[in-house]
Amino acid sequence: MSVDALKEALPAYAKDIKLNLGSVTSTSQLTEQQLWGTVLACAMATKSKQVIAELAEEAGDYLSAEAFEAAKGAASIMAMNNVYYRATHLIGDETYAQLPVKLRMTIIGKPGVEKVDFELWCLAVSAINGCGRCLESHEKVLREAGMPREHIQEALRIAAVINATAATLEAEAALAPAGV
C-alpha cells in the first residue's frame, strides 16, 4: 500500500496526476513530518477510502504516532471550521464574524506537534475544502512564523495532486461496471 499503488491505479488519461503524485512526495523541501502530515491530512480531506488507506499506511512509516494523530486532527477540525468560516464569509454580512463562534477548537492551540506543521496541514486541507477565510488565516500564521512562500506553495501542490488523485479514482470506480 503506497503512493506507488495509487500511481498504478490511475488510468492512462491521468498521466499528469500520476507524475505529479510521484513528484510531490519524492522531491519535497518540507521536513519529513511536514510532508507526510500534509499528505495524510489531505488524503483524509478527500474522503476517498482508497486514497486514505494507501497514503495512511505509507505516512505511518514516516510520522510519529503523535504526528499521525495530529494530521488526522487537522483534517477533522478543518472539516468543521472550513464549513463554518466559508459559510459566514459567503453570507456577506460581517456581523457574523463578530459573533462568538461557540465551536470547540482546542486542538489548534495544542495540536501535539510543532504549531507550524499543524498550521501547514490545516492550510492544505482548507485548500481542498475551499475555504478562503481559513486559507488566509493559516497562510498569515505560517508567514509570521517564517515559513517561506515556496513551502506553503508546496503544501498547496500536495493538496491539489492528492485531491485530483482521489477525484480520478472515485470517478473511475463509479464508471466501472457493477461487480467488475
UniProtKB/TrEMBL annotation:
Its biological purpose: Antioxidant protein with alkyl hydroperoxidase activity. Required for the reduction of the AhpC active site cysteine residues and for the regeneration of the AhpC enzyme activity.
| Cystine bridges | 131-134
Q: Which gene encodes it?
A: ahpD
> Is the Oxidoreductase keyword given for this protein?
yes
Q: What sequence ranges are listed for the domain Carboxymuconolactone decarboxylase-like?
A: 96-175
- Descriptive protein name: Alkyl hydroperoxide reductase AhpD
Q: Which UniProt keywords apply?
A: Antioxidant, Disulfide bond, Oxidoreductase, Peroxidase, Redox-active center
Q: Which GO terms describe its molecular function?
A: disulfide oxidoreductase activity; hydroperoxide reductase activity; peroxiredoxin activity
Q: Which family does it belong to?
A: Belongs to the AhpD family.
- Reaction catalysed by this chain? N(6)-[(R)-dihydrolipoyl]-L-lysyl-[lipoyl-carrier protein] + a hydroperoxide = N(6)-[(R)-lipoyl]-L-lysyl-[lipoyl-carrier protein] + an alcohol + H2O
Any Pfam family: CMD
The subunit field of the Swiss-Prot or TrEMBL record says: Homotrimer.
User: InterPro entries under this entry?
Assistant: AhpD, AhpD-like, AhpD_core, CMD-like
Q: Which residues form the active site?
A: 131 (proton donor), 134 (cysteine sulfenic acid (-soh) intermediate)
Q: Which domain of life is it from?
A: Bacteria
* Originating species: Thermomonospora curvata (strain ATCC 19995 / DSM 43183 / JCM 3096 / KCTC 9072 / NBRC 15933 / NCIMB 10081 / Henssen B9)
The enzyme class is: oxidoreductase
The Enzyme Commission number assigned here is: 1.11.1.28
The biological process GO terms on file are:
cell redox homeostasis; response to oxidative stress
